[in-house]
Amino acid sequence: MNTARTPAFGFLGVLLLASGLHAQHLRIFACAIGNDSTGAFMGGSSNGSGLYQSDDTGKTWRHLGWNNIKCFSMDMVQSSNGRILYEATGLGVLRSVDGGEHWKQLTDWRISEVMDIMINPYNKDHYNEIDIATAHGLRRSLDGGQTWEAVSHQNIKWASYGDSVDERETFYTDSCRSPAVYVGTLTGIDTITGQVYCTCFDEAPSSGRRLGDNTRFWATEWANPGEGGSGDNAELWATPGEGGRMRAYLFYSPSLGIEIWYDSILEPSSKVKKLQGRQIWNVKGFLVTP
Amino acid sequence: MKGSPRKSRRDDIRIAGDFSHRVTSVFSGQESRRDGIEPPDKPSLWDSIPSSPHSRPVPNTTPVVKTTPVVKTTGYSYAVPSGLILLILLATNVFAQSTATKLNVLNRIAAIPTRNDFAIIAAKIRIGVDTADAYRHLDTMLSRAYGDMFWMYGCAGLFYATQDVLRPDYKTKIRHACNHNTPYRGDTENHFLMYYGSLLLMSQAWPDLVDTEWFMGKSSREIYAESKEYLDHWIDETARFGTTEWSSPRYGYYYITCLAIMAEYTQDARLKHRFEMMLEYMLADYAADYLNGSYCGAHSRVGDDAVLDPRKAEINSYGQYFFEDSVTHLLPDLSFAAMTSFTCPKIIRQIATDRSQPYEQFSLKRGRQMIRYMDKWSASQNNLLSPSGERLGEGLDSTFHAPVYKYEYMTKDYCLGSMQGGIVQPIQQQSWSLVFNSDRSHNIITGLHPYVSAEELGMFFPEYPSFMLERIEQVKKGYTSEDKWYGGSPYERIYQDKNVLVALYDLPDSVKYHHVDVFIPWSAHPLDSTRSLDSNMQYEPDWRIFRFDSVRIGVYPLSSFRTMKEQYGLRIRMTNAHSGYIMYCESIGKSDTKSFITKLVHCNPIVDSSRVYSKSDNGATLNVSLRQKPKASWLFHSPFLESKKGSGVLTMRYKGEKRVLDFNR
Question: What does the pLDDT read at residue A2?
């Protein structure tokens, strides 16, 4: 059990320190795609899922916006300090311009299962460039979500796959540094520049997420659960020193406060079992106000 | 009883190009037509039911549905002598649904104790019974911000079906709930149909709301346009390339309910007509696989009960309603259909019930769209290669739907039906069945390899596969069980020729369960009493012969097997890595018992690389090719239904009559 907690708290520590916990007000967002309720995921109503926010470093949480959606990920316009938010959800992309009080669906029936979203932070004038990774491929909007186009093979060199790559096998996107977009696929993380950055393990990570200071890049994979991190914009990758391989999913419990839980393959499902019967949320994404 | 606004509805009846469609008067219960002739004034049973003023926006264009005797259609609007139309309609008796059945169904559903079910509440409000209780439950249904697409279609159905009698304050509450709840859109074809069908009707009801008045931040006009676009897209895709939740005994129920609601209350004439045609399309598809209350053949998604007892399927409720005109399997949503003017065309009912001649039906469906592991849905290289490597069909289409080649052999006594194997739908697939025409329960034989894997879930659902596998039992109980009776397997290959089916399995070491099971119901009596059924015995390949009512069945496991007695029948389990079985069935009128047994036990089945055959009689008893070329260019190909892939046209035929659904016009 301890071996599993150590990296979890380590991760949280990085998260909090990088965000300047002691220097300013910290607002944490968590994206939940379901809890332990029957029907709360996989075709169920996903009651209780959605976006949650904490202003007290995770002691208490409040639900923001829509019920009944799978909130896979989110992003914000960094300069808005949490006012302009984007949700990547099962039914598409939602945007709020008032800190989550009201939301507008930016996509239509064509787009579903949006697994990740990135507002290009380098287009600071208008923040109109939105990249999303869906279960059916990458999409990009250059007009703030009014129109979307598929990001085709012609626009991306998929070095790790060669020409045979299927763009649908993309699930996560994240920006580490301008102008690269990092795309997690079944076999690795690619960029639109064609450079392949990592193979942390025998099987490469499929999920990338930068941390608060924009330099630490963490990645996980689901085919063979594990985790790796890079402290230099994904130039160099290494496995965590402690804890070994970790499952990609994070669990947290509103009723338990700040604790953030990993499920470790060293102790399969031990955390989940320990918390059975309590309010456990399946959290796919975190975001902290800069 | 409240009065019915009959005049306003009759006033809607006018000349229409589609002379043969949607012309039964819901008031008189007799056939009429849209030619301006008033239906008889004679009161009928239906007169006692208050009607919805929104239920009959009759289109005056789009002559797309045709029923023989065919009158040439030359455009969207044309004049046909009204007397001729009346004569045609009376002669062909186009609509078989009885008004008495509608009223009976509605009254019985209204008599169900009130619960949180829009269909029951709607029936009570419509009929005017237990209305206080109904409104109390409606309050509950509208007060919570819970909601998904199932909530939506029920709410929309109630709103329209009772609009002329619904209390105004509840109209306001419904509007508020629909505008402000944030229902789950879901991720399946039936979910999207419910979601966008409901939004279409609700945005139609309140057409001028601005974007800030709807939960998703879009105006009524935007919502209507998006819903219409999706539904048109779905209809086009389905009519041209096949359904993806095909032949579902469970979800077919929801398709029919939604389409009945949408066909009745949509005001746009063209779209309304397309919904009507889709409803007929779904019913025709169902009818061709229907055998006395049982949905036969392979299924994309079957429910827990129906997998071993077909009559318990939700859709059977509609089968009885539309095809039998007598409903014993009563489910609440029938009230929505009973409150519409839709009646099942007679030709579809005839297709569903006439089993005087055996027939084969080939059909092409689509699997659920895949998002991962596209190469793993069938271990036999998309299941379209013969053992010798010959390519026999197409792979995934451009949108990652696997092709599903369905085949049924239907007789008056049984239907043997299958698809080619592999996984094309997660969790609830039933790849083959032998269904008996019987009034007894558990009138089915089926079999499978109980495949359980994170890859199957990851193939169709976006969440992490390992995470889903961990939690799947919470939402789909039984999925991980080694004893389950539904689910596809990538290691299954199925071949069928009329009354003979062969299923072959090649199970790798990595697979979780290394056995193959066949279910034989207790109602199937063993005919070869000399062969024991000892649960402790391991038997070598041999025929097991049974009789179920008027059908004899032979089961030949291709590897050693055990028999296990269970609640509803016998489980035959084979545990070899390379295994399979042969199913042989025959009506009892074909031969006597002794001849049947003798024929099978002496036929000496052989499986080689190209076929499964009976060696001793040189293929006279068994001769199933393992290189069957599927009819990949036909969505339907049978004596009753015909549709060329990509055409968007379905032609129904029955004894010289023809009815055409043309989705291109």
Answer: 30
